[in-house]
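Friendly challenge for the regulars: who can give me the C-alpha cells for this chain first? No prize, just bragging rights.
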Amino acid sequence: MTTSLERSLVAGFGLAFCVLLALGALQYRMTRQFVESGRQAAHTNQVLEEIEKILDQTRQAESAVRGYVIKGDPQMLAPYRSARSAVPPEIGELAALIVDSPVQQQRLHEMQGLIASRFAVLQKSVELRGQGGIEAVLAYAPDPSGSALMSRIAAVANEMEDDETALLQSRSAAADQSAAETSDLILAGILVALGVLTLAALIIRQEVAERRKAQQALEKSQKLYEGLFECAADPLILTDRQGYIVRANAEAERTFGYERGELAGQSLEILIPERFRAAHEQHRQKYYFEGRTRPMGAGLDLFGLRKNGSEFPVDIMLSVNQAWDEPLAQAVIRDITERKQAQHELTVRAQELARSNADLENFAYVASHDLQEPLRMVSSYTQLLGERYRGKLDAEADEFIAYAVDGAQRMQVMIQDLLNYSRLTRKPAQMEPVDCNVVLGRALNNLQAAIQEIGAEISAGPLPVIKGDASQLLQLFQNLIGNAIKFRGPRTPSIQVSAMMKRGDWTFSVQDNGIGIEPQYREQIFGMFQRLHTRKEYSGTGIGLAVCKRVVEGHGGKLWVESEPGKGSSFFFTLPA
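First reply, four minutes later:
Bragging rights claimed.
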C-alpha cells in the first residue's frame, strides 16, 4: 500500500509538474505577446509624437513670421529659424518610423511638399517685409496666415494619426483576444494542477496547516498595512518603475482633488507643475537605480499641482515598498504651505526689524551728533558760572554748579562714545591688509600717558597680518588694553597680547591681572551702557566693550571673556585669516 501510495504521489506530482511546464509555456507566450504589444504601442506613440512635433514646429514658424510681419522686430524670427532647421530632421525621423507603410509614406511625402511650400511663402514674406514693409507682404500674400495651406497640412497629419490609431486598436484587440484564450488555457491548467495538489495535500496536511498559518499572518500584516496606508495623515502614493500611479490613499484624494479612480494608471507627472516635469523624470529614474530612502525636503524646493491647477509647496519622502509583486516607489507627501507662510512672515518681520534697527541707529547717530553743540554750550556756561561765582555764593550753590558741570561733561563723553558706536554701523568697514603689530603699536602710543602713570607692564607676541579696517581694529585694541589698565587691582598691571591660528581663524587674547569679572556678568558687560561699578570707583560710560563687540562681529568674528574675580581677565576674539 505504501508503495502504491508512493507511486500515486510520484505520478500526481509528475502530472502536476507537466501541467506547470505547460502553464509556464503559455505564460511565456502571453508575456511575449504583451511585450510585442507594448513595443507596437510605443512605436505608434512615437509616430504620433513626431507628427505633432512637425505640426507644432510649422505653427511656431508661422506665428513667428506673422509677428515679424506685423511688428517688424527681427528678434521675433528666432522661432521661425529654429523651426526651419528642426522640421527636415524630424520628417526624416518620421520617415524612418513608417518605412513599413507605403500609404503613410505617400502621405508624408505630400505633407513634406506642403510644408516646404509654406516655408517658401514664409521666407518670401520675411524678405519682402525687410525690403518693402508690410504693404509688400500683403501685396505678395493676401492671406498671410496661409490658412488653406495649413489646413491641408493638418488634414494630412490627421489622416496619418487616424491610420496609426486604428492600427494600434487593431493590434490591441488581437492581443486582447489572444490573451483571453491563453488565460482560459492557463485557468484550465490551474484547475488540473489544483486537483492533483489537493490530492497530495491530504498526505502533507501538516505542511498545508503551517502554510495556512503563514498565510493568515501575511493577511493580517497586509490588513495592518492597509489600515496604516488609508489612515495616514499625509498623502501616500505608490508608483511603478515607469512612474505610473498604482495606489493613492484618501488623504491624497483630498489634497490633490482627484478621485482615486482618476489617479490610478496616470503618470505621476500630473501632480507636478509642468516646469518641473522633465527634471522630475530624470530624478525618478535615478532614484529607482539607487533605491535609497530620501528624507523629507532633502535640499529640494518642491511643488505639488492640484486638479484645479493650483500649486502648493510640499516636502516628499521617498522609499521603496517591497510588499507588492514588484518594488514600488512610495511617496509620502506633506503640504507645507503653512510652514512656508510662516517662514515668509518671519523673513518679512526680520526685514522690518532690520529696517527698524537701521532707523534707530540712524536716529542715535543724528541725535548724538546734533546734541553735541548745545551740550557744549551748556558745559561751557556752567564751567563759566563755576569759575566766576565760586565763593561768591553759598556752599550749596557751589555744590549745585559743580554737579551741573560734572553732569554736562559726563554727558559730552557719553554722547561722543555713542557717536563713535553709531559710526561703526553707518560706515562699512574698509577691508584691506592690516599688520596687527602696527595697529597695537599705535594703540599703545595713544595710551602711553596712562601706561607711564601707573607703570603698567605690557608684552605682546608676534601678531598676524589680516584683512580688516585699521581704524576699527585700533579702537578694539585700545579699548581692551585701556580697560585692563583701568580695572586694575593692587598689583602692578601686567597685560599680555597674543594671537594663534585655530580652525582656520586667528584667535587673539588680551590677558590682565586685574580685578576680574563675576561669572554672571560675562555676557552683560558687552551691552550698551552696562557698568558693574560706580563712577567714583571707575570712570567711563559703559560703551567701550559694546564697541569692541561691534567691531569684532563686523569683521566676521566672535568676542568673549574668561575671568576669575581677583585674578584677572582674558578677553578673546577671533578674526578671519
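The first helix runs from residue 2 to 71. The longest strand covers residues 311-321. Your move, everyone else.
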